[in-house]
Sequence to fold (336 residues):
Amino acid sequence: MDTPDQVGKTTSVEKGSSLWADAWQRLKKNHMAVFSMIVLGLIFVLCFAIPIAGNAFAPEDDAIRAADYWLKDPNNQNLNNTFASPSGQHWLGTDQSGRDLFSRVLHGGQISLLVGIVATTISVLVGVTYGAIAGYSSKTVDTVMMRIVDILYGLPFLVLIILFSLLISEHMAVYSAYIIKEWKWDSVTVNKYANLIPLFIAIGALGWLTMARVARAQVMTLKKLEFVEAAVSLGLRKKTILLRHIIPNMLGPIIVYTTLTVPGFILTEATLSFLGLGVEAPNSSWGILLQEGANYMETHSRLLIIPSIVFSLTLFALNFLGDGLRDALDPKAAKD
Fold:
């Protein structure tokens, strides 16, 4: 007969791990996804940390503007120094107006990344809510809600964004003037980001359609599983079941699709800015830099190549990260 000590040794229980812990372990094995995370982190640091540090840590008594202490003013023109080659003063050279190209790429990255992140956040909130309600409602409600989505899909996306953005811009101009006058905020900063809010809302408010379909498909699958049936048998309300049981279990596919949505919205902003309908001058975005560089690609190709490389790196990194998350969060992979 085994002693208690022997029984304890032979019946040791292996410690389990959660789905998210397993997913993280699988993601770390995907070298391309990990490299993409590093690239995205570096791009975020360059676009956000360096300009903020320049404003925060520049000496107050310096003769140069605080924004020029660590990083040149992206809108400061010097017509005597146009198309300058890369140097110690201008790391990537200057553009057709003598503005520092390195600074314009970083500040343009701020706008492009903010458009992608904020618009994606809006589309996720609207799309997941709409899709979850449609998927868990009755067949009639589901049919009506999804037919509305189909109708919106048939409308020209870019045209609607342009019209919606112009409509909101009229109201934002009034609010910006009020903030500058009453709150005494810096007019340059207020106008810079106030002009972006219509673009955020327009892209996000009209870009939730695919997210709604993804969320509905997940809800339609999950509501047939045993844990949802158990919650129904306990008499829980539909709202509680959706918020506590269904939506948390569909976060994996939603996160994956979100990483693939961000580059799409960045590309939409770049397209609008390339057409002259996005970010207003003199502010820059990657789309505006591509537009300006395209005008000089035969004589000064550097103005097109440099922002193209940064823009492409960001899009590729987001797509590779999305693919890595898809593989890591795949339930079938957890069984391997």
User: Anything to note?
Assistant: The mean pLDDT is 81. The chain is about 70% helix and 0% strand.
